[in-house]
What does this fold into?
Amino acid sequence: MEEFSRVIEFRVPRTWVGIHAADQVGSIARELGGRRILILTDMGIIHAGLLDVLTDSIKKEGLPVEVFSECLPNVPLSSIQQCYHLVEKEGFDLLIGLGGGSVMDMVKLVGMLRGSSGNVNVLFEPDRVKPSGLQKILLPTTAGTGSEWSNVAVFTNESDERKIPIRNDYLWAEAAVIDPLLSLNLPPRVTAETGMDALSHAIEAYTSWKASTIGDMLAEKAIRLISENLRIAYAKGSKHIQARYHMAVAAGLATLALRSSASYIVHSFSYPLCMKARLSHGAACSLMLPVVMEFNLIGNLDKFARVAWLMGERLEGLPLREQAQKAVEAVRRLSSDLKLKQTLGEAKIDETHIPWIVDYVFRFHSYQVENNPRDLNREDVEQILHAAR
It folds into this structure.
């Protein structure tokens, strides 16, 4: 499809970006008309001491605030219901998400459930969602998902162990606050995994057949920022606020790029791997990204060669195919430097799991198969999985 034949919509919430931006949360909450505020987070965030800056800011405005600290990875449906019932019981009218992608998705999905009076069917049929009346403020503590700048959320349906992505305009937050100080003491492993998630967003957006000029601009900047800053943030992030700042910005840019283009089978693989191998989303993307890139090279040699250049590879005198191959090598080297799993074997995925993963991809993520820069059939997907072994 030619880029000019489709309309690309851009939207981000009103956003505050910068060091100490989180100090503004209280005044933002007051401006949004919040009267009873609930902060959604997890125990890791509380133990890291990140909650106080929010509660202090809110209390300075004379607003009551309480905390729900039981957010869980991968956003189980039961957890969404638990928080929804608390919101209904206590009459909260403004939710604040402080955490990574799962926490921010939780805020969005609780709001979605509120709009349907608790009817969980709306999560499976999001076209039926109605306004919730809840205001939402999102503060990322990781630089990966970019959920603060998207109308997408993912939850886990425990009954069939399926991760379900939702896109809906009622998932937009009213405000986002991106403060790199919130990620300053992020553990190296989380820094690595979330950073590779952002890189996957950028590279998939850049090389999908649905790529756009606007998305390319955003993706190129994100790829360069991540390749220049992720290792530093991983190695000694607590002492490099500039690297944390650049990673926070890159995550947002990569998400915007993805929204103007499309994710493809790197993300298709990540969902079943999260379920079967208990990998984080970013770790699963990191493992599959270079393998998928290698399969896809012939679908866009020019773009993959450009990825290599953006990541600092020396390309002088190389044929185009070898330039593109350098992108695969650059991603593998970065993932290896970050001590992330490099093979499905390391993730305890064996040959017996492959048919189930293939079925999952084609049953639940056929749209991402379609977005891939190279056509795929079941044998191709099996080939990619065997190559990742």
